[in-house]
Amino acid sequence: MAQWEIAIDSLSKITVLSNPNNEPVTIIGQVEGLKCIGVGTDAAVFQFLDAPHYAYKVYAKDKIDKVKAEAGVYEQIGESPFFSTYYGSGEFFIVLSYEDGKTLYDCVLQGIHIPNQVVEDVESARDFVRSKGLNPRDIHLKNILLQNGRGKILDVSEYIQSGNDLRWEHLKKGYEEYYHLIDGKSVPFWVVETVRKWYHQQNKYFPFFDDFLKLVQKLNFMK
Fold first, then answer.
1. What is the mean pLDDT of residues 11-16?
2. Spatial contact of 82 and 155, defined as CB atoms under 8 Å apart
3. What is the DSSP code (8-state) at residue 83?
4. In sequence order, what are the residues at sequence separation of 6 or more whose Cβ sits closer than 8 angstroms to the Cβ of residue 35?
5. Which of 171, 148, 154, 134 is nearest to 44 (CA)?
6. For 120-158, what is each residue's pLDDT tens digit?
7. Which residues have a Cβ under 8 Å from the Cβ of 9 and sit 6 or more positions away?
8. According to the lineage, what is the superkingdom (predicted)?
9. pTM beyond cutoff 0.70
10. Residue 136 and residue 162: Cα distance in Å, rounded?
């Protein structure tokens, strides 16, 4: 039995449910020794105290079709300093290496400096992924980890989809043109969440992304 398998029984005692409007998942149940270390819109990530070197990404019940897809992407990527190491999967979860650090989302909330090296690393990671025949998508603040001054991408579940969602291009543009206004400042949670929700509606209300950025710039934290 692989070491990571000792957490399977504990993982089976929790339930992850998705929510509408791109909101984070809901977790039902609590198990001693199992710690939630991240929450997304499709899954939650846990660390098992008896196997702390692993991260268990548990998908919502209506999203488990993504388990096989994401496992396949990690197998196709192979070893890379830009991504977690993939160890295996179960019916409703995948097992990755536990990665220490702060997501860029948390960096913005806490005023932790995000170096340009992170942007360069994401660009390199995207080139690497394309060389593997995959399509890098869904790259945003919660999916990028600041680790020892470098960038690491945490979620590859959409890399088999086609098209460009432009999320990284928009984030990079915002970093290059506006990050200096908040660098080193703790941005209130309500502001970050407001921008996130506006962004998901920007195609409806803002014909051009620059118009969206101009509105964001008017928020008090950027003055």
1. 96
2. no
3. B
4. 46, 47, 48, 49
5. 154
6. 999 999 999 999 999 999 999 999 999 999 999 999 999
7. none
8. Bacteria
9. yes
10. 9
